């Protein structure tokens, strides 16, 4: 039973990830407001998919295609949105997406990188040309290892679309 099936969005070729649906992906049991559970971002052939799993069902969850996961609490419907993913999880997600080639995932990683730069967790070092691509050379704050970040030259609408995808995953206005 999938609670977060990805769907192609209109026009941009990206993917939308649904918000928590309040149902455990493994057991099908409801996840009640204020109840702790695990959220997992899974890579599927169709794109990213968010799955929510009760803590009691987490040991049975197959983590083979998991890109990132975090413990969170099911919000109350009337509760104000808050960030459920800490900076370490965002940085880990950025690093794990280093070798993606799918254009939607490259765009996703680029916008995530911009967010991490704004949070001063990634430091821009330089730009180099690799064929017809611009590669930003960055490093994680406090580290010396250099990382490549493909600049997909997104227009404003594409940045908004990818930011919305991140918003859906993180439940946070970016």
Which helices and strands occur, and which strands form pairs?
Elements: E1 7-8, E2 15-16, E3 36-44, E4 47-54, E5 66-73, H1 87-96, H2 103-118, E6 122-130, E7 133-140, E8 146-151, H3 156-170
Antiparallel strand pairs: 1-2, 3-4, 3-5, 6-7, 7-8
Helix pairs in contact: 1-2, 2-3
Helix content: 10-25%
- What's the number of domains? 2
Query: How far is it from the N-terminal to the C-terminal residue, by CA?
Result: 29 Å
Write down how many β-strands occur, each being a DSSP E stretch of 2 or more residues: 8
Radius of gyration: 17 Å
Structure description:
With 174 residues, the chain is an alpha+beta fold. The protein folds into two domains: 7-73, no CATH class; 87-170, no CATH class. It has three helices and eight strands, in the order βββββααβββα. It has helices at residues 87-96, 103-118, 156-170, and strands at residues 7-8, 15-16, 36-44, 47-54, 66-73, 122-130, 133-140, 146-151. A three-stranded antiparallel β-sheet has the order 4-3-5. Helix 1 packs antiparallel against helix 2 and helix 2 crosses helix 3. The two termini are 29 Å apart.
Short description:
With 174 residues, this protein is an alpha+beta fold. It has two domains: 67 residues, no CATH class; 84 residues, no CATH class. 24% of the residues lie in helices and 30% in strands.
Any descriptors?
single chain, 174 residues, alpha+beta, three-stranded antiparallel sheet, 8 strands, disordered N terminus
């Amino acid at each position: 039973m999938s609670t977060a099936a990805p769907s192609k969005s209109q026009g941009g070729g990206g993917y939308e990830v649904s918000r928590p649906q309040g149902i455990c992906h493994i057991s099908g049991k409801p996840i009640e407001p204020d109840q702790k559970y695990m959220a997992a971002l899974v890579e599927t052939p169709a794109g990213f998919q968010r799955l929510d799993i009760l803590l009691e069902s987490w040991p049975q969850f197959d983590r083979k295609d998991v890109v990132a996961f975090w413990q969170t609490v099911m919000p109350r419907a009337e509760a104000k949105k808050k960030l459920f993913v800490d900076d370490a999880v965002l940085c880990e997600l950025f690093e794990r997406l280093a070798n993606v080639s799918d254009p939607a995932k490259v765009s996703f990683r680029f916008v995530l990188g911009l967010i991490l730069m704004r949070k001063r967790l990634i430091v821009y070092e330089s730009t180099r040309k690799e064929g017809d691509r611009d590669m930003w050379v960055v490093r994680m704050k406090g580290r010396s290892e250099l990382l490549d970040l493909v600049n997909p030259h997104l227009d404003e609408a594409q940045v908004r679309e990818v930011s919305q995808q991140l918003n859906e995953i993180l439940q946070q206005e970016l």
